Amino acid sequence: MMIRTMFKSAALASAVAVAAVATFAFNSPAVSAHGDVTPQAVDVSHLPPLDGPKTSNPYVGNPDAIKIGSSAFNQNCARCHGLGAVSGGIAPDLRYLPTDAETDEYFKGKVQGGAIRNGVTYMPAFKDVFKEEAIWALRSYLVSIHTEP
Ligand code: HEC
Predict the structure, then answer these.
(1) Rounded CA gap, 75 and 93, in Å?
(2) CATH code for residues 2-144
(3) End-to-end CA distance of the chain
(4) 8, 51, 71, 82: which could form a disulfide with 87 (CB 3.0–4.6 Å)?
(5) Ligand 1, CB within 6 Å, residue ranges
(6) What are the pLDDT digits (tens) for 40-73?
(7) Residues 109, 28 contacting (CB under 8 angstroms)
(8) Cβ–Cβ contacts within 10 Å for residue 109, how many?
């Protein structure tokens, strides 16, 4: 938990600075017109179905999961976290997330719940958009491009 808190605080300064930008982008009709704001459902029919919620990534290393995750990432996450997950500085660089099982669980929670504090949406919640399979496909993709800071 301590490690996680430290990891977050590094991201916090920039997150606070861009909060206004992120919320604006999210609520702005002009931006929605570009079609990249509405969360995109992810087709997971090519992945082995899961028999229930997992706390660690069941697809790690699975090439189909990585491919699906890559596409899902570029459609749903890249506008804040950067194309190919190379952060442009407005949200944490997700290539740096540790690849361990503890971070699998943290990742899932973050994607489902987003980051919403004091009524400000720093990151939207995706729990109603993504099935369990889609979350682990995203995680598989990010683990496959993991980089040390
Ligand atoms: C509207 C911009 C936005 C979008 C879209 C977005 N995020 Fe985020 N994300 C952020 C911000 C800003 C933070 C830092 C949040 C904070 O301050 O707690 C963050 C934090 C995270 C974290 C925690 C990182 C850490 O270092 O602790 C993860 C994991 C994450 N996002 C994954 C995703 C994934 C996967 C997607 C796509 C499904 C996504 N995000 C879409 C803005 C966004």
Answers:
(1) 16
(2) 1.10.760.10
(3) 20
(4) 82
(5) 7-8, 11-12, 15, 22, 26, 76-77, 79-81, 91-92, 94, 107, 110-111, 115, 122-124, 126, 138
(6) 889 999 999 999 999 999 999 999 999 999 999 9
(7) no
(8) 13
Place of tokens 């503890």: 102
Whether the pTM exceeds 0.90: the reply is no
Angle at 85 between CA 30 and CA 126, to 5 degrees: 60
pLDDT tens sequence across 4-26: 544 444 444 444 444 444 444 44
Instruction: Give, in degrees to the nearest 5, the angle at Cα 96 between 95 and 100.
Output: 100
Helix/strand/coil (H/E/C) assignment for every residue in the chain: CHHHHHHHHHHHHHHHHHHHHHHHHHHCHHHHCCCCCCCCCCCCCCCCCCCCCCCCCCCCCCHHHHHHHHHHHHHHCHHHHCHHHCCCCCCCCHHHCCCCHHHHHHHHHHHHHCEEECCEEEECCCCCCCCHHHHHHHHHHHHHCCCCC
